[in-house]
């Protein structure tokens, strides 16, 4: 019978095993990350998102809007900060507001007027008004200085004229008469000045020095709502977008009666639209939940708005500005993919249309192809996180080191770690070795598929920091692969921690099933759970039992909480078995097929267990034991095994020696998913008959082999786990059908 594999396929698998060498070349000729030089351009410190980086540069030049769509941890917030930095360095002096916003009393008690003025002028005018009102409030409000000052000037002029005329009278006596007239005038003016001073003194003494109420004057003084000197940031981050945060409004007035009420212009406050050139909305879903989308679209269209008190009957609800505030903002928003669907439906996609009209919608990559560039970016990212950790350690420990010295730092760290530390221990960052960097690349590969690297980097930060502390505790000069592997084990997501608990239970379950069954109809399938936040996949073994009963209803019974896709996969397996029987020319007498996911407490969904279900049913059908030390995963259509997701995570979960597994069968199209498991491990090429595979040694020195076989058809799987080829399986299926047909005829006609 013709083999499904060719010599080219075997050569391809052997070339696959050279992946660690290719990865070493991609990491570059570095010994450790101390040789890595970080780019000066801050935008280039955002790794992987090449299209997004080009987009924000283009949009920054056009001063347009940005909507970034992607999963958490792909760098949306970091790109928003880079966008701000680009605009700040290029157009910041033009974008940053120059004028203060002032509020004045309006035409009545519910209206205000808004104005723009230079901060220095606005501050000087308000200070002068406040000083004048303070003087009035202190009793110095009554003054005749405006009358006394001109009289004093006239008196001084008359006295000067009198002196000149007296001097002239020494030569011309007639001038003395004029001197007498001016002297009498000076005396009269002096008396008038004295009278005004007396009146001023009497008035002040009459008031008794008591402060006088000047609230009616204070209520008329304008208020500075926004001073650009006090808020120099170009971008404002709005974590909870609403009308109050975005547009502003009027605060509640606790004194609403009598003469104590606060005028509306003193209760007004501004939102992000009036004060921030760039508004960063980190989670657009919140904006939709509070119902602010329609108002945002109006402001984006008009670039101005009225300050309003809002709805309701409380204090400030009826307050309003008489004129408009400027609102020429750049909107930078982030959301996940589920929010985009709502945006497409809301107002026929009006917001998306507004973004596309003046800006761009940027899709953040959740995975990128593994290339020389992307691997070097991983190394660059590790270096950046090392530097960030160094800054954090310096902020916490530099003061202690300066005051108490390195020895006391060592003692304090020993108390934190709960173990004695070497005498030469120094609390400082460790560089990653090249092989440790390869472990991080391996982890990113394991979290993606199809030869790609995951771009969800936030969970990787924790692994890098945990590996740093592992190296610190050992006082290792570098972070090595073993430190990264331990960090991966300890730095688990919520789903990972739950799967770790489940894995311990599955080990005991598998041992129990092995000891109690004859391995006929029992198969170890492989399932995967994806972390909702970080996208990390966690595999788990999934024991499956198949049973075929002759003469029953012609159907498949899939018990438990199997999902619709899993049930459809079970029906597909039944069709595949019937097709095989027709091919063998065997009579079909009707079979009731039962499929059970053993101890599966949650809903199991997907078609990745199709191959495992097929093996379980065929094993029970032909009464052939299955090697339960091999896990099975793969979809199935007819005889062909199809690719499935999470293969790397599935293999990792059963490579734990404590589980007792020796290998796995995976689809041929998923062969690239084996590459990350070859990093920092010994390997060799293996074959079972025509089926090629890779043997991975789980311990150094060629110990603890684990074989992964690449299967193109379900008959390749039979060969590996049951030791039978296609012809042998079909012959035994036909033999079973004939025997069942004869038995059913005897039951119907006992004579």
General description of the model:
By secondary structure, this protein is an alpha/beta fold. The protein has four domains: 76-119 and 229-363, P-loop containing nucleotide triphosphate hydrolases (Rossmann fold, 3-Layer(aba) Sandwich), CATH 3.40.50; 142-211; 369-490, Orthogonal Bundle (Helicase, Ruva Protein, domain 3), CATH 1.10.8; 497-747, Ribosomal Protein S5, domain 2 (2-Layer Sandwich). 47% of the residues lie in helices and 18% in strands. It contains 25 helices and 28 strands. It has a nine-stranded mixed β-sheet, with helices on both faces. A five-stranded parallel β-sheet has the order 5-8-12-1-13, sandwiched between helices. Strand 20 (555-558), helix 21 and strand 21 (591-597) form a beta-alpha-beta unit. It is elongated. Residues 493-499 have low confidence and may be disordered.
Keywords:
nine-stranded mixed β-sheet, Helicase, Ruva Protein, domain 3, alpha/beta, 25 helices, 4 domains, elongated, Rossmann fold
Examine the coordinates and then state which fold CATH places here, giving the name of the CATH topology of the largest domain. Ribosomal Protein S5, domain 2
How far apart are the first and last residues' alpha carbons, in Å? Answer: 43 Å
CA-atom Rg in angstroms: 42 Å
Q: What's the count of strands?
A: 28
| Number of helical stretches of at least 4 residues | 25
- CATH architecture assignment of the largest domain: 2-Layer Sandwich
Range of strand content: 15-25%
On the 0 to 100 scale, the average pLDDT is 79
Reading off the top of the CATH hierarchy, the class of the largest domain is best stated as Alpha Beta
The residue fraction in helices comes out at 40-55%
User: Biggest sheet: strands side by side, in what order?
Assistant: 20-21-19-18-22-25-28-27-26
| Helical/strand content category | alpha/beta
* Uncertain parts: 493-499
């Amino acid at each position: 019978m013709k083999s499904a594999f060719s010599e080219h396929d075997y050569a391809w698998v052997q070339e696959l095993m050279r992946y660690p060498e290719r990865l070493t070349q991609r990491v570059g000729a570095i010994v450790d990350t101390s040789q890595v030089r970080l780019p000066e351009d801050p935008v280039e410190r955002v790794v992987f998102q090449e299209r997004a980086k080009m987009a924000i540069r283009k949009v920054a030049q056009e001063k347009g809007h940005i909507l970034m769509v992607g999963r958490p941890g792909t760098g949306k917030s970091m790109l928003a900060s880079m966008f701000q930095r680009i605009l700040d360095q290029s157009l910041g002096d033009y974008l940053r507001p120059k004028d203060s916003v002032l509020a004045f009393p309006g035409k009545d008690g519910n209206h205000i007027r808004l104005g723009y003025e230079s901060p220095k002028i606005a501050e000087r005018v308000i200070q002068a008004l406040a000083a004048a009102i303070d003087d009035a409030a202190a009793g110095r409000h009554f003054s005749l200085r405006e009358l006394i000052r001109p009289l004093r000037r006239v008196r001084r002029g008359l006295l000067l004229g009198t002196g000149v005329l007296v001097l002239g009278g020494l030569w011309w006596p007639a001038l003395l008469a004029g001197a007498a007239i001016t002297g009498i005038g000076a005396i009269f003016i002096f008396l008038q000045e004295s009278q005004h001073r007396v009146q001023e003194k009497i008035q002040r003494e009459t008031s008794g020095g008591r402060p006088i109420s000047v609230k009616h004057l204070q209520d008329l003084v304008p208020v500075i709502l926004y001073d650009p000197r006090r808020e120099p940031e170009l971008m404002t981050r709005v974590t909870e977008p609403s009308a109050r945060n975005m547009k502003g409004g009027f605060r509640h007035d606790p004194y609403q009666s009598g003469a104590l009420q606060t005028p509306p212009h003193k209760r007004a406050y501004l939102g992000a639209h009036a004060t921030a050139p760039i508004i960063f909305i980190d989670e657009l879903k919140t904006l939709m939940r509070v119902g602010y989308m329609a108002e945002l679209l109006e402001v984006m269209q008009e670039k101005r708005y009225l300050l309003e008190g809002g709805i309701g009957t409380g204090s400030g609800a009826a307050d309003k500005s008489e004129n408009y505030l400027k609102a020429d903002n750049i909107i930078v928003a982030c959301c996940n993919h589920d929010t985009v669907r709502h945006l497409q439906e809301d107002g026929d996609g009006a917001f998306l249309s507004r973004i596309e009209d003046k800006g761009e919608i940027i899709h953040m990559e959740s995975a990128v192809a593994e290339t020389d560039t992307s691997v070097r970016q991983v190394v660059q990212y590790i270096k950046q996180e090392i530097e960030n950790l160094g800054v954090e350690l310096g902020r916490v420990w530099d003061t202690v080191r300066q005051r108490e010295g390195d020895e006391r730092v060592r003692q304090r760290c020993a108390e934190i770690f709960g173990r004695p530390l070497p005498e030469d221990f120094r609390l400082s960052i460790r560089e990653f070795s090249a092989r440790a960097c390869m472990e991080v690349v391996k982890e990113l590969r394991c979290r993606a598929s199809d030869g790609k690297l995951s771009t969800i980097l936030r969970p990787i930060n924790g692994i890098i920091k945990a590996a740093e502390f592992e190296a610190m505790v050992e006082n290792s000069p570098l972070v090595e692969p073993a430190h990264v592997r331990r960090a991966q084990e300890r730095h688990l997501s919520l789903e990972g921690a739950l799967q770790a608990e489940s894995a311990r239970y599955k080990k005991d379950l598998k041992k129990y099933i092995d000891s109690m069954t004859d391995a006929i109809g029992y198969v170890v399938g492989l399932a995967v759970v994806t972390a909702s936040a970080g996208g990390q996949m966690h595999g788990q073994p999934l024991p499956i039992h198949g049973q075929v009963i002759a003469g029953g209803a012609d159907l498949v019974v899939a018990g438990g909480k199997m999902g619709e896709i899993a049930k459809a996969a079970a029906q597909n397996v039944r069709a595949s078995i019937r097709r095989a029987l027709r091919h063998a020319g065997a009579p079909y007498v009707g079979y009731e097929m039962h499929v059970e996911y053993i101890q599966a407490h949650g809903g199991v969904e997907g078609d990745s267990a199709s191959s495992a279900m097929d093996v379980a049913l065929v094993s029970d059908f032909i009464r052939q034991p299955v090697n339960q030390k091999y896990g099975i995963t793969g979809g199935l259509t007819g005889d062909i095994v199809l690719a499935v997701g999470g293969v790397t995570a599935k293999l990792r979960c059963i490579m734990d020696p404590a589980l007792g597994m020796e290998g796995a069968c995976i689809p041929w199209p998923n062969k690239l998913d084996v590459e990350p498991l070859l990093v920092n491990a010994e390997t060799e090429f293996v074959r079972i008959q025509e089926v090629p595979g890779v043997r991975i040694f789980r311990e150094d020195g060629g110990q603890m082999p684990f074989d992964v076989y690449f299967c193109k058809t379900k008959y390749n799987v039979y060969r590996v786990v049951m030791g039978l080829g296609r012809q042998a399986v079909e012959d035994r299926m036909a033999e079973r059908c004939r025997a069942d047909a004869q038995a059913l005829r005897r039951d119907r006609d006992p004579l």
